[in-house]
Amino acid sequence: MAKGFLVRDNLTKDTLLVIASVGAATLVAAVAPNVFVALARLYFKDKARKDVYERARKLKELERKKLISFRELKNGEVRIELTYRGKILVRQYNLDNIRFNKPQKWDGKWHILMYDIPSSKRKASDAFRHKIRQLGLFQLQKSVWVFPYDFMPEIEFIATIFEIDINKHIFHVVTKEIPKEREVREVFGV
């Protein structure tokens, strides 16, 4: 792949994540035939002309799909904001990028995740289970998982995405000993 070439599949993701990371940004309005090009130049770090025009097309598409909105302020500036649909999509992108923060040294404590999600939320339960497996937790029993490091901030985020009430359906236990400890130690290399 050539240097500086934008991967089209990731352009939507990249554009939305940049807008989300900056928050509702305010830019000086460009009174130009193509305001999207001016916004792309001001807002993103794309250097090549081709990349700027590709980004401008993406901004226009995101506005048409109602994922972002532009609002002109009284002082002539333009504010770029994520819409509700855009925020949901950013959450999904953030979910794809989530990783556990592993400390340099293991403290010898096991973190156990237990959950009991009602059958009325079957899809959420399946998605939750798939994501924690993908993140590397070890399954001790059907709804009992173990990990050698703290995972609660990430689990809270995942539960929020899948609309699972963490106070009712998810439990976190920290302990020094677990069943199958030798096998689990081998899996995690601790």
Describe the protein's architecture and organization.
- This protein has 190 residues and is α+β, with helices and mostly antiparallel strands.
- It has two domains: 8-96, Orthogonal Bundle (Arc Repressor Mutant, subunit A); 103-188, Alpha-Beta Plaits (2-Layer Sandwich).
- The chain is 47% helix and 18% strand.
- It has helices spanning 8-22, 35-43, 49-64, 84-97, 122-135, 152-161, 166-169, 181-188; strands spanning 25-28, 68-72, 77-82, 110-115, 138-141, 144-147, 170-175.
- The strands form two sheets. It has a four-stranded antiparallel beta sheet. Strands 1-3-2 form a three-stranded antiparallel beta sheet.
- The longest helix has 16 residues, at 49-64.
- The radius of gyration is 22 Å and the shape is elongated.
- The two termini are 39 Å apart.
- Mean pLDDT is 77; it is low at 1-9 and 24-32.
Full CATH superfamily name of the largest domain: Winged helix-like DNA-binding domain superfamily/Winged helix DNA-binding domain
What is the total tally of β strands?
A: 7
So how many helices?
A: 8
What order do the strands of the largest sheet run in, or round the barrel if closed? 5-6-4-7
Taking Cα atoms only, what radius of gyration do you get, to the nearest Å? Answer: 22 Å
Alpha-beta classification: alpha+beta
Q: Based on Cα principal axes, name the global outline.
A: elongated
Question: Major sheet, described briefly?
Answer: 4 strands, antiparallel
In short:
This protein is an alpha+beta fold and 190 residues long.
